[in-house]
Amino acid sequence: MDRAPNEIEALIAQVARLPGLGPRSARRLVLHLIQRRDQSLRPLLAALDRVAQSAQTCTTCGNISTLPVCEICINPKRATAEICVVEDVADLWAMERGGIFGGRYHVLGGTLSALDAVGPEDLRIPELVARVQAEGAREVILALAATVDGQTTAHYIADALAGLDVQVTALAQGVPMGGELDYLDDGTIGAALRARKAV
Amino acid sequence: MDRAPNEIEALIAQVARLPGLGPRSARRLVLHLIQRRDQSLRPLLAALDRVAQSAQTCTTCGNISTLPVCEICINPKRATAEICVVEDVADLWAMERGGIFGGRYHVLGGTLSALDAVGPEDLRIPELVARVQAEGAREVILALAATVDGQTTAHYIADALAGLDVQVTALAQGVPMGGELDYLDDGTIGAALRARKAV
């Protein structure tokens, strides 16, 4: 044995590869789990197993759910006229935490990227066009990152929807809540100045 | 649905309670696992399950192992004459990473603490005294934290072993490797000065 027994060392190595964890935090986490087997390790195993069995991708919007069509898409209270386009499920969850948007989503599964060779056929853009036509959406809100790839994708989607009777909008850019001008980058200050509003 | 489906939200809540993780990193981790079910989630489940089945506390030293007596205690190459006393298994693993110590360990399971009402009977101190007598150890090395509780525990153990024919030593205190004096606390500088050596 080098540090810990083989099965335990193997578990530490696997945990250390997860996002946000490293060898040291993985060791601490695994030790915590072993020392609290009944309060922590077994419930975690059961919860992981349930998710492994039930998690699936919503066939309509691409959200992760435990149903074939996700809780948002089958919710009759969510407006069908507005579709919010997000890059991935993490962004969808972030929008939902805001609790402002009452429409439905469309998860692209990434952004166009010349560097990573991601083209339009790799994203769920054709599905978006088909949904807009089938569901009669009146507005598509592009909630994509303010990066080069995000904005390229936004332009591509706006072009793809140009022939349809749908308004395409994007999230406003400007000073974030609690943001101090001194700490903001020049691009954000420029965008906020160009989009200035009457008080 | 509020943010994510129930089973997934339950898993995120459990992961968020683990040491070193919070709600945001737990969400990221769970999403990562779901999106890489075959490469990441299923292997992690299997590894966790193996550890849940096999991990146990060594009946001799208190180390965590997959055997009733751990790999260190059954290793004939490890000296029986030296017993290194550590607070917990994490400290044992830290000592093993150093790779210097060739003896065996004794895990106390904590330190004496008036605040947390941890008395000698809550730690594995009687077992240590019995081991020293039974195994004929010549040296007990106290590798305890340089805190008030750690040093109180060290003094208590030294007293408990006073009647036996065994030398009790403790880890040296001083300037850590790469430590700059300017950033060290006064206590460390004082201890290093008192323990100064001829060059």
Which features characterize this protein?
homodimer; 199 residues; alpha/beta; Helicase, Ruva Protein, domain 3; Dna Topoisomerase Vi A Subunit, Chain: A, domain 2; 2 domains; four-stranded parallel beta sheet; two-stranded antiparallel sheet; 7 helices; zinc ion binding (chains A, B); DNA recombination (chains A, B); DNA damage (chains A, B); DNA repair (chains A, B); TOPRIM_dom (chains A, B)
Quickly name the level 1 CATH class of the largest domain in chain A. Alpha Beta
Most residues in contact: chain pair: A-B, 55 and 55 residues
Q: What series of H and E elements makes up the topology of chain A?
A: HHHEEEHEHEHEH
Strand content bin of chain A:
5-15%
What helical percentage do the residues of chain A reach?
40-55%
- Rg of chain A from C-alpha positions? 22 Å
Short note summarizing the structure:
2 copies of one chain form a homodimer. With 199 residues, chain A is an alpha/beta fold.
Task: Explain what this protein looks like in three dimensions.
The structure is a homodimer of 199-residue chains. With 199 residues, chain A is an alpha/beta fold. Chain A has 2 domains: 6-54, Helicase, Ruva Protein, domain 3, CATH 1.10.8; 64-170, Dna Topoisomerase Vi A Subunit, Chain: A, domain 2 (3-Layer(aba) Sandwich), CATH 3.40.1360. Chain A has 7 helices and 6 strands; from the N terminus they run αααβββαβαβαβα. The first copy, chain A, has helices at residues 6-16, 23-35, 37-54, 89-98, 125-135, 148-160, 186-194; strands at residues 56-57, 64-65, 82-86, 104-107, 139-142, 167-170. In chain A, the strands form 2 sheets. A 4-stranded parallel sheet of chain A has the order 4-3-5-6. The longest helix of chain A has 18 residues, at 37-54. Chain A is globular. Chains A and B meet through helix 1, helix 2, helix 3, strand 2 and helix 4 of A and helix 1, helix 2, helix 3, strand 2 and helix 4 of B.
